[in-house]
Amino acid sequence: MATTPDAALASVRDALAAATTRRTPFTLASLATASADGAPRSRSVILRAWDVDRAVLGIATDARSAKVREIRADPRVALVVWDDDTQVQVRLEGRAAVLEDADERRRRWDALGTRSRRGYATLAAPGTPVDPGGTPAQDDDEAAWFGRFAWVEVAVDRVDRLDLSTDPHDRVVAERDGAGWRARRVAP
Which InterPro entries match (predicted)? Predict the structure, then answer.
């Protein structure tokens, strides 16, 4: 049974809130950017924060990563999440920015668990070749780890929710409309 466009948008908001407070199928998203030559680049990211009032997602990443350079060059991004249990796909489009505010960046860093912070111990930048069979060198300097940490915020401008569990399939697209959202049903 088809849901109303506003109810579909509300379900996406709720699912993103849940995904950033506990592990759900929407916690792991695919983030797409454009490379310097315009080629598409996609990688998995963990959604770590969702500000429902501003429609802004938060993602932690290595400041030396290609995605940071790509976002700074062209902030347009897309994310895709899929819930196999409910058969719902959500595509999110918006503009990303690398957080420059030092205090807010520190707050985001402090909210990460020890295991997540340890991910920034690698001395080499992401994508740097390593010796075959070797592991990248790491350090134990947590201040250096913080220096490698970046917080990316994605201001969502468009939501595309496709429900494949219904017959016929149900698709709703919502776009920012001033301070609010305009949601409408579209052909799947």
Answer: F420H2_bilvrd_red/Heme_oxyg, Pyridox_Oxase_N, Split_barrel_FMN-bd
